[in-house]
Automatic annotation (TrEMBL):
The chain crosses the membrane at residues 12-33, 45-63, 84-111, 123-144. It comes from Sulfurirhabdus autotrophica. GO terms for cellular component: plasma membrane. This is TRAP transporter small permease protein. The lineage of its organism: Bacteria, Pseudomonadati, Pseudomonadota, Betaproteobacteria, Nitrosomonadales. Keywords: Cell inner membrane, Cell membrane, Membrane, Transmembrane, Transmembrane helix, Transport.
Amino acid sequence: MFSRLLDHLEEWLIATFMGLATIITFIAVALRYTTGAGIPWAQELTIYLFIWMAKFGAAYGVRTGIHVGVDVLVRKLSPSRQRFFTFLGLSLGAFFTAVVALLGVKFVLFMRSTGQTSPDLDWPMWIIYLGVPLGSSLMSFRFIQVLVQFRRTNQLPMHHYGTEHPE
């Protein structure tokens, strides 16, 4: 139940961030070319939305099997060595993203103490940078999920084009 809810929340966040960024960009460009007046904060907000989308999108990629992986050498190994190196790669992915999440928390706390705000939106920068520890934590969790699944079934998630949910 929790996993399904998290899956839907993840997908909803990615779609929302992407949709908002697209709409804001379209409106800003349309206004600039029709009235000559732009929206001064549009570019900044669009950049932040795409950063958050990318952080959560990377976690989605791990969960669904569409995250970039280089396995051309691993596939040439024996099945037992393939399993070992796949397990190692997933473990290192979980560890690395957990470290990024922890460092991200430390950075967010530092940014909160500075009181710094974004140039155009005047939003607290710590809120904007919160995407790093949140997205990295989710990505680490997804690596662990895939690792547990791989250990049980010896299968990695595979993206099935044209289907919304491959399960």
